[in-house]
Amino acid sequence: MPIPYGRQAINDDDVAAVAEVLRGDWLTQGPSVTSFEQAVADFCEAPYAVAFSSGTAALHAAAFAAGLGKGDELISSALTFSASANCAAYVGATPRFADISGETLNVTAETVAARLTPRTRAIVPVDFAGLAAPLDEIRRAVGNDVRIIEDAAHALGGQGPDGPVGNCSVADMAVFSFHPVKTIATGEGGMVTTADVALRERLVSFRNHGFSAQPTLLTDEGGWYREQHDLGFNYRLSDIHAALGRSQLRRIDDFIVARNAVAQRYRDWFADVDEVILPPAATAPQRHAYHLFVIQVRSGREQRRRLYDELRRRDIYAQVHYVPVYLHPWYRETFGYGPGLCPTVERYYDGCLSLPCFPMLTEAEQRTVANAVIETLRV
Ligand SMILES: *Cc1c(COP(=O)(O)O)cnc(C)c1O
């Protein structure tokens, strides 16, 4: 069996939770969704949580709820999955890209400020690999009129300087994904947390075709009456998925502890391997969620390619996170971006490789991975 870079951890409780929904009355739009939303809100210490059918749908809804449209600009980290920036384009806005700090691999107040224009309406800082982005300093740099949409897809279970990731004490909204490689899985699924009740209403409406969240009370048309005020989508999460998420969330602390143990072993084993640059760690009381454990190969592109291929040959499916978003053909062709825009991201991309890191990875499997890395890079 190949060793992937990430995978879900499903147990009998998860299976039972899903089976219970299947035997019940609600496959969608039922109580499991509400219960999962409440559990995520409580866990993140955020006032509200709104579930979506994917993290991408959640980002789309967040861009809509933030009021972004034609002529507006959104600044995303350039080191992320395309969805962080695609959400701007979905609503007709222009995605721009901020460089990262080589130390934290996250955007900073300076790199974001360098892209601010009078048209900037939203920032999407990414908690890269599971390390909380510096939201406080970004907020100070952009002021209160710009929306901060934290892309926390890597970081559910992490702790930032102001408490749990996604608490929205600084960000207007935080977005999570429950893809199987993320820290909890629903299959496909996502969530937005927020402290703003007006944003919550817009998110709920957008998820359901743009229908108002509450019955319109100003008419006596009848009990069935709902109005569509916006153009939304069907981005609902099903109760089947929600039940799995609710069950998974009960074990998230174990998952994060296990991910941190994997990370610590890699750190110990690679401590004197000069070719391996270790990723940034979180300093207590902050906690890294380690969605990814990303090393950099010091000598760059060619050695990274050799390492990737050799691991693959040995059935170890390491991965590269990420091709800088603006270098994808669609971004080059649509917005005229090209090499040189974010030099630190490009340098980082040349050497980075995500090694297997997930709760069920056994120490023996991990040893196999580490030995393969060391043997390959020492030749
Ligand atoms: C996984 C991920 C997403 C998208 O989530 P999906 O649930 O796969 O749609 C968005 N942003 C980042 C940074 C991600 O890692």
Structure description:
Helix content is 38%, strand content 14%. The protein is built from 13 helices and 14 strands. The model has no long low-confidence stretch (mean pLDDT 97). β7 and β8 form a beta hairpin. α2 runs parallel beside α8. The longest helix is centred in the C-terminal third of the chain and has 18 residues. It has two domains: 247 residues, Aspartate Aminotransferase, domain 2, CATH 3.40.640; 126 residues, Aspartate Aminotransferase, domain 1 (Alpha-Beta Complex). With 379 residues, it is α/β, with parallel strands linked by helices. A seven-stranded mixed sheet has the order 2-10-9-6-5-3-4, sandwiched between helices. It has a three-stranded antiparallel sheet with strand order 11-12-14. It has a two-stranded parallel ribbon with strand order 1-13.
How would you summarize what this structure contains?
By secondary structure, this protein is α/β, with parallel strands linked by helices. The chain is built from 13 helices and 14 strands. It folds into 2 domains: 3-249, 3-Layer(aba) Sandwich (Aspartate Aminotransferase, domain 2); 252-377, Aspartate Aminotransferase, domain 1.
Question: Treating each run of at least 4 consecutive H or I residues as one helix, how many helices?
Answer: 13
Q: Tell me the distance between the termini.
A: 26 Å
Number of strands: 14
Average per-residue pLDDT, rounded, comes to 97
In this entry the ligands are: pyridoxal-5'-phosphate
Radius of gyration: 21 Å
Biggest β-sheet: strands ordered side by side in the sheet: 2-10-9-6-5-3-4
Structural class: alpha/beta
Number of domains: 2
* Architecture (CATH level 2) name of the largest domain: 3-Layer(aba) Sandwich
Strand content: 5-15%
Q: Can you identify the CATH superfamily of the largest domain?
A: Type I PLP-dependent aspartate aminotransferase-like (Major domain)
